[in-house]
Amino acid sequence: xxxxxxxxxxxxxxxxxxxxxxxxxxxxxxxxxxxxxxxxxxxxxxxxxxxxxxxxxxxxxxxxxxxxxxxxxxxxxxxxxxxxxxxxxxxxxxxxxxxxxxxxxxxxxxx
Length: 111
What we know:
Blueprint: H1 2-21, H2 29-41, E1 54-61, E2 67-73, H3 77-87, E3 102-108
Antiparallel strand pairs: 1-2, 1-3
């Protein structure tokens, strides 16, 4: 009986230790980046046909924290041009970033 209680007590201590070892700060890098991209793309003058269209945008960040658009996958050429023109070389605010890391964001234009 004593061995069982020691095993249970040690298991509780180990699980308590792993809970304390986790980071208490949530990861919000991509969330803030997607909000910044949404803000940049919010003002648009696209035609009614482009509304409810979507695109996959692949980009990276350079050392000046500017977005460098690598590709825009969309069926609408106007949407592709709009996204490239609006996002390319726009500065974003990120504290921790890796230069050259590849990002992919889904973009949907809606009114």
